[in-house]
Amino acid sequence: GRIGKHRKHPGGRGNAGGLHHHRINFDKYHPGYFGKLGMRNYHLRRNSKWCPILNLDKLWTLVSEQTRLKYKDHPEGKAPVIDIVKAGYYKLLGKGRIPKQPVIVKAKFFSKTAERKIKAVGGACVLCA
């Protein structure tokens, strides 16, 4: 149209001038946008109780069926290593049964029952930080 010209950014771009020439708008519609509040916590420990769990009956779902069968009756008695931390779990709980086949499990925490059941089938529990 013929009314006005588009003169680029006369008020500045974005939120420019919130403390200066656009102050009325910011005070009216966005109170509390500027300024600080409270104290900064330098060593904030986010949820330290976060500990995803895995039950023993789901342990073998982390490795393929071929791996399980490959180690089933291994002549040297080798066992597969299952690292549940890589799968996103921290603690292994002892619900359910596992096949009578040795397995090496790496985790941050084990429950007593899980440790007992793994050792009963000839496996080992490895703690990793």
TrEMBL record:
GO MF: structural constituent of ribosome
rRNA-binding among keywords: no
PROSITE patterns on file: RIBOSOMAL_L15
GO BP of this protein: translation
Top-level taxon of the source organism: Eukaryota
Record keywords: Ribonucleoprotein, Ribosomal protein
Region of interest called Disordered, as start-end residue ranges on this chain: 1-21
This protein's GO CC annotations: cytosolic large ribosomal subunit
Keyword Calcium carried by entry: no
Ranges where the Large ribosomal subunit protein uL15/eL18 domain occurs: 54-126
Biased composition (Basic residues): 1-11
Family, per entry: Belongs to the universal ribosomal protein uL15 family.
Protein's recorded name: Large ribosomal subunit protein uL15
Protein species of origin: Cicindela campestris
Gene: rpL27Ae
